[in-house]
């Protein structure tokens, strides 16, 4: 879930006033870009779009406002309709991705040429370059029909007349096509595979047509703060409170997003609005001091990795099924602190791999804070690590009871040198949500332990007074329980 707001929560205005203000903004605004992703395989979900968000970020870096991302199939009429829609919305730049291959349904260059009023012509230099790229492949496959390959790929050397060619990374070239009509946007045509598109973007930026299209580009600053243990609805209250306190938010574009159980507040603004952002950050810092864990955009993973330097950690996890170990080893260099982990799904595994006393399981049950503590201590001992993590819970959809409903998860992070944080939490959502959020809760408990916090004699703070220990922003009433 995300919310996006420009200029705070203003009073209602009449339609003429709204149009007047919109026209004033348009006359001063940075150039806008539309991103058009082509390919039936993307439209139908066979392949996930990775290019749209990546291109949107790159547009912001060059001071262009990415206004929209659209996905269309390989039908030429849909591709042309997408281009025409973006022209009608006043885009200065359109960036397309995909549809540049040698097959019959790869029609992007042809349709963009029609859109820009330019006929297709054969580029002999490009045809020769594509042939050079294909030559090693043809040699590796002696039985392949070399002539058929050349004819098929010759199609990729047909470009709109006057287009600027971007040298292929694979076999497909990129293009920057300027329109013949003045009210038509410049179109940057890029291939679909990210490994080809991304280096070609840098080449496109260096071309004269691209620079001309974004001549009025601005500079954007983007700052991110992160909170944990707070519902997203509370940020809307914070925005209203900030306006009531007299803060100027009109120059800030504020976006809130719930990600992995954390709240991310991203703010984009132009350099003259720096004092407004500073005041907004100070307001968040004062209002949410107990849940604000990142003021510089760093993630919980960044912070934990930094705090683990010079230390070692091990994991014994049940309901998360290896997700905790995967999260800790997701980044390069994690071998310096991650000693090992065990997925102790069954009670037998808890006993044999983590050294949990079977009598303890019989007495309190596998899903209990006592077993979580035994798992954490057992992981540290088994892998000779300084720190241990224990996770046990009921991810669902079955297996719950009145005493321990689905979503009940017990956590313990433990230091052999002294110190422990143990919690029992009821997490909302389906099986995947519970497992993923369990890892996030553990990361925050680990950060706190590494920063010197610890339960006194094994007892944590009272439920509801420790929002960062595991209250989930999506839960509404998801304050952590403690046993």
In short:
The chain is an alpha/beta fold and 483 residues long. Helix content is 38%, strand content 21%. The strands form 4 sheets. A 6-stranded mixed sheet has the order 3-2-4-9-8-7, with helices on both faces.
Note down, in words, how this protein is organized:
By secondary structure, the protein is α/β, with parallel strands linked by helices. It has 3 domains: 108 residues, Alpha-Beta Plaits, CATH 3.30.70.2860; 183 residues, Molybdenum Cofactor Biosythetic Enzyme, Chain A (3-Layer(aba) Sandwich), CATH 3.40.980.10; 170 residues, Alpha-Beta Complex (Maf protein), CATH 3.90.950.20. Helix content is 38%, strand content 21%. The chain has 17 helices and 18 strands. The strands form 4 sheets. A 6-stranded mixed sheet has the order 3-2-4-9-8-7, sandwiched between helices. Helix 13 links the parallel strand 14 and strand 15. Helix 4 crosses helix 5, helix 6 packs antiparallel against helix 7 and helix 12 crosses helix 17. The radius of gyration is 28 Å and the shape is globular. The C terminus is likely disordered.
Q: What's the domain count?
A: 3
Rg of Cα set: 28 Å
How would you describe the oligomerization state of the chains in this entry? Answer: single chain
| Average pLDDT | 88
Under the CATH scheme, the architecture of the largest domain is 3-Layer(aba) Sandwich
| N-to-C CA distance | 32 Å
> Which band does the percent of strand residues land in?
15-25%
> Can you say what the CATH homologous superfamily of the largest domain is?
MoaB/Mog-like domain
Q: Given the structure, what is the number of helices?
A: 17
Number of strands: 18
Level-1 CATH class name of the largest domain = Alpha Beta
* Strand order across the largest sheet: 3-2-4-9-8-7
Largest sheet: 6 strands, mixed
Structural class: alpha/beta
Low-confidence regions = 6-27, 457-483
- How would the global form be characterised? globular
Give the helix proportion (percent range): 25-40%
CATH topology category name of the largest domain: Molybdenum Cofactor Biosythetic Enzyme, Chain A
């Amino acid at each position: 879930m995300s919310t996006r707001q420009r200029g705070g929560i203003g009073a209602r205005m009449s339609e003429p006033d709204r149009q007047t203000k919109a026209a004033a903004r348009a006359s001063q605004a940075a150039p806008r870009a539309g991103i058009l992703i082509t390919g039936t395989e993307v439209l139908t979900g066979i392949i996930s779009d990775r290019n749209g968000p990546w291109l949107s970020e790159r547009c912001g870096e060059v001071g262009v406002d990415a206004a929209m991302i659209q996905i269309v199939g390989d039908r030429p009429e849909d591709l042309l309709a997408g281009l025409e829609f973006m022209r009608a919305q006043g885009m200065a730049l359109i960036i397309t991705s995909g549809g540049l291959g040698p097959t019959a349904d790869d029609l992007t260059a042809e349709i963009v040429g029609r859109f820009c009023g330019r006929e297709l012509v054969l580029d002999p230099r490009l045809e020769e370059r594509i042939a050079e790229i294909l030559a090693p492949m043809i040699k590796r496959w002696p039985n392949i029909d070399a002539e058929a390959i050349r004819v098929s790929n010759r199609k990729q050397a047909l470009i709109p007349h006057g287009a600027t060619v971007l040298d292929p990374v694979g076999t497909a070239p990129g293009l920057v096509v300027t329109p013949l009509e003045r009210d038509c946007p410049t179109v940057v045509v890029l291939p679909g595979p990210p490994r080809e598109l991304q280096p070609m973007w840098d080449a496109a930026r260096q071309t004269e047509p691209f620079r001309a299209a974004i001549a009025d580009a601005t500079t954007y600053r983007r700052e991110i703060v992160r909170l944990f243990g707070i519902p997203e609805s509370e940020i809307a209250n914070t925005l209203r409170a900030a306006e009531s306190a007299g803060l100027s938010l009109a120059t800030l574009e504020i976006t809130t997003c719930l990600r992995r159980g954390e709240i991310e507040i991203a703010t984009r603004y132009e350099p003259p609005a720096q004092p407004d952002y500073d005041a907004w950050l100070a307001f968040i810092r004062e209002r949410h001091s107990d849940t604000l864990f990142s003021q510089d955009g760093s993630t919980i993973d960044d912070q934990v990795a930094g705090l683990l330097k010079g230390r070692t950690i091990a994991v014994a996890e049940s309901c998360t099924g290896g997700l905790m170990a995967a999260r800790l080893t997701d980044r390069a260099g994690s071998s310096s602190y991650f000693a090992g982990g065990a997925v102790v799904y069954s009670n037998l595994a808890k006993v044999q791999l983590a050294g949990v006393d079977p009598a303890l399981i019989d007495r309190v049950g596998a899903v209990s804070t006592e077993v979580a503590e035994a798992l954490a201590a057992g992981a540290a001992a088994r892998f000779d690590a300084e720190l241990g993590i224990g996770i046990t819970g009921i991810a669902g959809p079955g297996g719950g009871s009145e005493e321990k409903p689905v979503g009940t998860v017990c956590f313990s992070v433990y230091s052999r040198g002294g110190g422990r944080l143990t919690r029992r939490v009821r997490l909302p959502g389906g099986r995947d949500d519970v497992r993923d959020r369990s890892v996030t809760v553990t990361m925050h408990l680990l950060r706190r332990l590494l920063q010197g916090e610890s339960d006194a004699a094994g007892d944590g703070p009272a439920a509801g007074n420790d929002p960062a220990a595991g209250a989930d922003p999506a839960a509404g009433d998801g304050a952590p329980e403690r046993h």
